[in-house]
Amino acid sequence: MSRTSTGIVRLTDRHPQVTGAEMVAALTPPPQFDGATFATYRADDAYPSQQEAKDLLEKFSGGGAVPARGGLFRRAKREPEMKPGVYLDGGFGVGKTHLLASIYHAMPARRKYFGSFIEYTALVGAIGYQKTVELFRGADLLCIDEFELDDPGDTMVMTRLIAELVPTGTKLAATSNTPPNALGEGRFAAQDFLREIHAMSAHFQTLRIDGTDYRQRAVDGHAIVLDSEEYEAALADAAGDTLVADDEFAALVAHLATVHPSRYIRLIEEIGAIGLRDVTTFDDQSAALRFVAFVDRAYDAQIPIRATGVALDRVFRDDMLAGGYRKKYLRAISRLVALTHSPVGA
């Protein structure tokens, strides 16, 4: 993503539009994972499941074959056949997206796609379900990052899309903070479409990846809050080298409601730093979830954030953190803390 412009703009002045063709072209790993490989994934020795997942995923991607056992007159032990999909389940910050991008880069596939759950469902909304099926039919690999359940309709669309693609030979790889048979727990009446969820689960081998959030290992655990003078100075310094967004927090949150989450990546296109004035705590869960989606895209693009007001790791109320979207909020908090510590132009 080019960042050649300098100066200060407002995200609230931007109204991005994205065509179906542009959405398809964007189905590649985020810039920060352009060079992600299994070799660059650093498994934590304290959590053996990380190395185990890495080894299995290398095999899934076409490498790392287990050597045949047995001598000249002994039949080699046959390895159990893998399912067409792998599902990486674990907490945030344990490297699931890195491993997902490693699969994408390692698999010698002619047609492969990498996108977040919300990007795939937005594509269905833009070009229609049948055209989406036709587009992906025969694809070698579909990587789905952040497979999370916000809307039962979206989940049913994805489970049925997966069911149509698997028989055509498409391999699947997905990440989530929730195992596939637990999607929807604590959020709404998941029994209404439990059959579809179980059908999807049958296509995946679930790999549990344990560990601690690597972002929290790198910072002191709290989002940085600036006073007004520090904020003005930080944005002025950044604006000399890159394009900086400077918005009132409440105004940006309201603006996010007018932009489809699939377009948030275009909302921050060419932005090198994000400034948020007078941050406040969320009262509305829908607004909070839109902000989570915005944070995800800002983190994918590795855009530093500078802010005044309430610390960004305190914007979600305790009752939100105790609810069904707890893991989404905690992931966003982890990313917000990291982005407030990130230097501009790194």
Automatic annotation (TrEMBL):
InterPro entries reported for this sequence: ATPase_AFG1-like, P-loop_NTPase
Q: Name one GO biological process term.
A: cell division
The record's section on Gene3D superfamilies has: P-loop containing nucleotide triphosphate hydrolases
Query: Pfam families from the xrefs?
Result: AFG1_ATPase (PF03969)
Q: Which UniProt keywords apply?
A: ATP-binding, Cell cycle, Cell division, Nucleotide-binding
Q: Which NCBIfam families match?
A: ZapE
Name listed for the protein in its UniProt record? Cell division protein ZapE
Q: What organism is this sequence from?
A: Microbacterium dauci
Q: What is the lineage of its organism?
A: Bacteria, Bacillati, Actinomycetota, Actinomycetes, Micrococcales
Q: Give me the gene this protein comes from.
A: zapE
